[in-house]
Amino acid sequence: MSTGETARTSRAETIASAIERRIADEQLPSGHRLGTKQTLCQEYDAAPATLTEAIRLLGARGTATMRPGPNGGVFVASPTALVRLGRKMLELSGDSVTVADCLTVRDQLDPLVILEATRYRNSRDVEELRELVAAMAVEDLAWGEYLRINWALHRRMVEITPNQVLRHTYLSMLEYVESRLQGVTPIAPGPEVSTRLGAQVHLELVDAIASEDIARATAAAAAHTQLTANRGATS
């Protein structure tokens, strides 16, 4: 993909996350009209193609849906039982639930997510994973930007699996971590976890998924587990 398409995908992810936060923060009910594509483009300062991609992401997550016609637009979706489960998990708060708790659960799910992606990926999945990992490999990438792309990459991987329980549980962990770290300046860990090393590990991860080789994906998942074991609690 071109640089412009890469930027559009990254921007679409940001807009989708912002709309999800709005739905959660304002406790918007199912069927609530978020706006038309035109008004949402204006609200989020987005190009039509970028907003269309954001709506696709929201639809895949069961968060919002597009309705055509004169009275159409983008509406809050009626949540399935699994989406309600995810929202309940996001309602957890207080000192009893920490970012570290969520990262621990996410880390345990990562190998399964990777193997599922290897089994079920298609050419579009691989293309989008490659563009995200390429963005991670940019020279002198700031740690906060590295984390944002990292989370987007993992979100895209789990969207491949047909296992809805896995997908919603994993996404809930990611969304909880992102919500708790919103506005917090992340501190880079020690030199043993550099953005360059992280990009290399994730590049092999994506190459393994693309290869459909389960043994290679298992080895790549093990290397990724070692990487996460060396990181700080906020990475």
UniProtKB/TrEMBL annotation:
A GO molecular-function annotation: DNA binding
Record's keyword annotation contains Transcription regulation: yes
Top-rank lineage group of the source organism: Bacteria
Presence of keyword Transcription: yes
Xref: InterPro entries: GntR_C, TF_FadR/GntR_C, Tscrpt_reg_HTH_GntR, WH-like_DNA-bd_sf, WH_DNA-bd_sf
Alphabetical list of SMART domains matching this protein: FCD, HTH_GNTR
Residues annotated as domain HTH gntR-type: 9-79
PROSITE patterns tied to this protein: HTH_GNTR
Swiss-Prot/TrEMBL keywords: DNA-binding, Transcription, Transcription regulation
UniProt-listed Gene3D superfamilies: GntR ligand-binding domain-like, Winged helix-like DNA-binding domain superfamily/Winged helix DNA-binding domain
Pfam family, one: FCD
Entries under PANTHER family matching the protein: TRANSCRIPTIONAL REGULATOR, GNTR FAMILY, UXU OPERON TRANSCRIPTIONAL REGULATOR
Protein name stated in the entry: HTH gntR-type domain-containing protein
Organism ancestry: Bacteria, Bacillati, Actinomycetota, Actinomycetes, Pseudonocardiales
